[in-house]
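Entry 14. Ran structure prediction on the chain below.
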Amino acid sequence: MNDDVVLSAHFNLREFVSSQTAARLGREIIPPPDVLANLHRLCQQLLEPIRVKLARPIIITSGYRPKWLNQAIGGSLTSAHMTGNAADVKVVGMSPWTFCRWVQQHAPGEGWPIDQCIQEFGQWTHLGTALAPRGQYLTAKHVDGRTTYLQGIHQ
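Output, structure tokens:
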């Protein structure tokens, strides 16, 4: 597979198929054509416009996850990562909370197709898109050993 595929000016396929878990399992991540098309859309319509307006590097910490990888890491059974419609990111020089609030403030005026923007455990941000985006802003927290999603962006 050619993981040097350019998805947008600041993102390439390598960033979305890199996984320590897959490497430990000796597995390669190869997105099928429909997932590759979704990754292009995710980058072109959401990640790249955010990166340009923000003028800061965005690091992909988790991109496309085939079903076997999503299961191996305990991901949601309906994860948008499995279809190439989401990425977990960190922004250089910004906390996830600050970044999520920034996205929430700018998305309406920019027309970004935000399906979900989730501030996850104060560690990273989940950004997802969809053909019919819901515009959800959530905060993931551990409560009694389980992941709980709160409406809105909270610290």
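The beta strands are 6-8, 11-12, 58-62, 86-91, 116-120, 124-128, 136-143, 146-151. Will compare against last week's run tomorrow.
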